[in-house]
Amino acid sequence: VKQLSLILSQDNFSSKNRGKMYMSHWETRDVRLDNWPLMSSLWPTLVLSAPISTLSTAMMKGFMNLYNLVQIYGSMYMFINFLKGGWYNDYNLR
């Protein structure tokens, strides 16, 4: 609770304190993820999200619909392969 109140205090969001917060998060990161794409730094996330912030509402709606369809098909693909690996493949515990 004490840390939360410190984070929410008004002067905590100054640029000096934000830098300290970023560095404290950076030092406690999981170093096993450093070689993963987009995980080695904050910059790839910022660079990839910048064009999206300039999209109009209509374009964003189309983009979100496409994203949702991709998520639905990906989930269906994983679920069907899960079934193929188990129940649809005459799997038996005995």
Please describe what this structure looks like.
With 94 residues, this protein is an all-alpha fold. The chain folds into two domains: 1-53, no CATH class; 55-94. Helix content is 64%, strand content 0%. It is flat and about 60 Å long. 0% of the residues are buried. This is Elongation of very long chain fatty acids protein. It comes from Caligus rogercresseyi.
* Rg over C-alpha atoms, rounded to the nearest angstrom: 22 Å
Instruction: Provide the β-strand percentage band.
Output: under 5%
Overall number of strands: 0
What distance separates the N and C termini? Answer: 51 Å
Shape designation = flat
Give the tally of structural domains: 2
Helix percentage: 55-70%
Q: Class by helix and strand content?
A: mainly alpha
What pattern of helices and strands is seen along the backbone? HHHH
Average pLDDT across residues? Answer: 79
The low-confidence parts are none
Keywords: Membrane, Transmembrane, Transmembrane helix
Protein name: Elongation of very long chain fatty acids protein
Transmembrane segments: 66-83
Which tags fit this structure?
94 residues; mainly alpha; 2 domains; 0% strand; flat; transmembrane; transmembrane helix; Elongation of very long chain fatty acids protein; membrane
